[in-house]
Amino acid sequence: MSVQGQHMLQAALTILRDRLKLEVEVESEQLLASRNRTIDALISIRVGHNRIPVAMEIRKTLQVASLKKATHVSAWPTIFVSFEIHPKIRQQLESQKIGYIDLAGKVFLPFEIYDDFSSDDQSQFRKPVSAKAIGLNSEGILKVILVLLSRGPFKKIKQQEIADLSGVSIGTVNRALMYLREHKYLYKKDKTLKFDHGAELLEKWALAFGEFLQPHLALGTFRSLQSIDSHVLMEPRDVDSRIYVSGEMAAERLTNRYRGKNVCLYLEEKALVNAIKFYQLIKDPMGSIKIYNVFWSSGIDTGNSTLAPVPIVYADLINSRDSRNREIAEEIGALAIGLNNDR
């Protein structure tokens, strides 16, 4: 495997481990899969108490013409890794139950990730929670809950206002409110709607956000030619768009003590080119700068014009495999619940 191929494989493994919270091991590289065909790598992914062998095929580009020749080269489930896969090819792969990892941020696994870990499992692996299993697999509902977590409690909930802030229909707002009431997360006290079990809701929302919504928001992974810290990110900038800081750098500002290393930004897609110039960014799947499309309304008050909403910061930290990030996420989570209850 070439050096570039090894870098692409490592980037794909990072996505599986960090974003999807999967326990992955590389079993072999350049393995003979059939008489005339080798695969680039064989990995194993832990699902429950079992390990599933998966063939990894590394492609700089993946085209329809070469797809038939490349697929089904082994008896194992296959995941293709490429820099950016065209939507039509992604659709074709999904229809054939063939996995892919698009280093631009899109992922499809050729098997289900079951939430069947036993309570006596002694591993340090954090089990994945299915957004579908907890009823939060709707992009619209996730957006509505973000608005409610960021703006509540409410003396009067105006569905139209929430719909405008969420960018969804009133029907989606009503479904979100129904979900919250049915699961005892929303209650009325002194004519004010408040959250109950807020920490539990925040964690479920964060995990569902990382699994279902965030992958569709990815604009790319980069490295910078200049040194970027929280002070640089918080400075006024000549970029005509909304740019919000999340993850480690946001935690540094919210706690005034955490020292962040990796950068997580949310911005409008139209501003990506200007942001690349401003921060001197180079696309690099192994880079430490992740950029996502901002999806919330500017009407959501973050308390700081450059910080992402606190629930987003919490989600980006808790969905990391970094133990320091998860530890500080608990503090950020408490801050999110406290802000919500004190309004």
Description:
The protein is of the alpha+beta class and 343 residues long. It folds into 3 domains: 3-108, Trna Endonuclease, Chain: A, domain 1 (3-Layer(aba) Sandwich), CATH 3.40.1350; 139-210, Winged helix-like DNA-binding domain superfamily/Winged helix DNA-binding domain (Arc Repressor Mutant, subunit A); 216-342, no CATH class. Helices cover 39% and strands 22% of the residues. The chain contains 12 helices and 13 strands. The strands form 3 sheets. Strands 1-2-3-4-5-6 form a 6-stranded mixed beta sheet, sandwiched between helices. Helix 5 (159-166) packs across helix 6 (170-182), helix 7 (198-213) packs across helix 11 and helix 11 packs antiparallel against helix 12 (323-342). It is globular.
Brief sketch in words of this structure:
The protein is an alpha+beta fold and 343 residues long. Helix content is 39%, strand content 22%.
